[in-house]
Amino acid sequence: MKGAVLDDAAVLLAESDTVATAIADLEAGRSIETDDLPGDRSALEVAEPIAFGHKLAVMAIDAGEPVRKYGEVIGTATERIEPGEWVHIHNCESNRGRGDLAEGSA
Amino acid sequence: METFSGYRREDGRIGVRNRVAVLPTSVAASAVADRIAANGGPRVTATPHQMGTEQPEPARRRTERVLAGIGRNPNVGGALVVELGTEGADASAIADEIAAADTPVETLSIRDAGGTRATVDRGRETVDALLEEAARARLETADASELVFGVECGGSDATSGIAANPAVGNACDRLVEAGGTSCFSETPEFIGAEHILAERCVDESVRERLIECVERRESVADLMGVDLRGTQPTPGNQEGGLTTIEEKSLGAIAKGGTTPIRDVIDYADPLPIGGGLVVMDTPGYDVESVVGKVAGGAQVIAFTTGRGSTTGNPIAPVIKVTGNPQTAERMATNMDVDASTVLDGESVEAVGERVYETLLSVADGTRTEAERRGMAEFAINELQPRELASLGDPT
Question: Alpha-carbon distance B31 to B283, whole Å?
C-alpha cells in the first residue's frame, strides 16, 4: 500500500500529511502506537469515535491552516483541531468550487 | 504477448463484443427501441435516453455525435437507428456516420412504419438481418495494444483514492506500456488536482486545454453563485469520509495511472487507438461520463466504487473494482475485482495486475458481473442553455 499503516488503525498517505484515514471503525480512547507518526510522537489517542474511511488529525491544526492529505492541500481548518480529533465537513472546508465566495455573488 | 480474441471489423478495428445496437434518436423513440431490443435476444441492446425531439442546435449535434459514436464502437456489429420522425436529430445522418465505419446500419421511422406495433415488428426483422451480418465478423487474436480502456469512478469513498483508483491506475499504466490507450475523465473531479495533471501533459497546448476545461467546470459554480460544497463531494461521498472536492479529486485522478497525458478531447470525441493516456472532458455524472467514452470508442470500462455501484453499459462491458472491504462482501455479486486487499497490505501493483488480467479476460469474452445481471444504463450529457449562453459552445 502507498503510505504508512498506523497500527492497523489508519493510513498516512504522505509524510507531510496532517491527517490520516481510518481503515477500521475507531473508538474514542484507542491509542494508536507507531513510530510512523509525524514529529516525535510515538502514540496518538483517538479523541472521538471515527468511522471507517474518515480522517483524524495526526497533529494539531490551527483555524485557517491548510489540511494536508496525499501530500497536498485538501482544504482549510475552520477551527483549531487537536491531534486525534475527527476532521470532516464540520471543521474543514474546501477552497475550490466556491461560487458563494466569487466576486459579485450574493 | 498479451492477447485476446475479438471481432475484427471491416475497417480494421477490433471489438470485444459483437452486439447489435438499437439507437433511438429521442425519448419519443426510446420505448420502441427498448421493445425491439428485448425481442432480439441477449446480443441486441438498446440505448434509451431522455433527449427531446427538439433541442437547441449545439445540444442536438451532441446527441447525434454520441449516437453515431456508439454505433461506430467496434463492439457493435450492426446498428438500427429508430426515430419517431419529428426529431431534430437526423436518423439518416447518424446512420451515414455509422456506415462510414463500415458497420452495417439500418433506420426505421415509427411514423412511416405505421405506429409502434408495426415498428416493433419491422424492427425485429431488421435486427435479425443485422444479427446475421454481425455473425460474419471474424473472431481473431488481437494484441492488447488494440484495446481502448475507459476508467470511471462512482459512489466514491475514502477507499477509492487509497485502493481502487491506484490499482486501476496501475492497470492503465500496464496497458499504455503494452501500447494500448487508456482514457480517464470527469473534469469536475480534477478541481484541486489539476496542477498535478498539468505537469503530466505532453506539451503546452494539451496543458492549456486541460486547465481551460477545469476552469470552465469550476466557473459554472461561480456563474450560478453556488457553492460546490454539498454537491461535491456528494452527500454519499461525505458519508464515506470524503470532505472536500480537492480530496475527492486527488483520489479520483489516481485511476488514470501515472503516464504522460497525450491529449485532452471533448465529450464523445473519437479516442485514438494504439497509444497513451487521454483525458476526455466529461461531467462527473458517471452514466453520462461512461457513455462519452464508449461513444469515443472505448471497448472496456473499469469502474471503481467504494460505496457500491451496480451500473453497466449496453455496448461496453463494465468491470467493477472496489477498495471497500464491506462493499466487496456485501455487494460481491456486483463486483469483479476486490481491491480492498490493499488495506490489508497487498501492494497496489499486485492488485493492478489483477485488474489488468481481468481487463484482458473480459476483452477475451468473460462476462462482467454487470453483464451477467443485464445492467446497461445509458444517458447522454445534454448541453444546458446556461452553459451554452455563458460559456460559449464547447461542442
Answer: 26
Residue B62 sits in the same domain as residue B131? yes
- Contact of B157 with chain A, judged by CB distance below 8 Å, is answered with yes
Please give the residue range of the domain that contains residue B228: 142-373
Instruction: State the pLDDT at residue B231.
Output: 65
* Chain B CB within 8 Å of residue A39 CB: no
Question: How far does B247 lie from chain A, in Å, by closest CA?
Answer: 5
> For residue A106, is pLDDT > 60?
no
Flag if B192 and A94 touch (Cβ within 8 Å). yes
**Confidence check: pLDDT of B243 > 50:** yes
Give me the domain span that covers residue A69: 4-96
**Cα–Cα distance between B257 and B253 in angstroms, integer?**
8
Average pLDDT, chain A: 90
Instruction: Please name the member of B162, B244, B324 whose beta carbon is closest to the beta carbon of A74.
Output: B244
pTM of the model: 0.94
Q: In which order are the strands placed within the sheet that holds B14-15?
A: B14-15, B3-8, B138-143
Note whether residue A17 is domain-resident.
yes
By the CB < 8 Å criterion, does A68 face chain B? no
State the ipTM, two decimals. 0.93
C-alpha A44/C-alpha A60 separation (Å) is 11
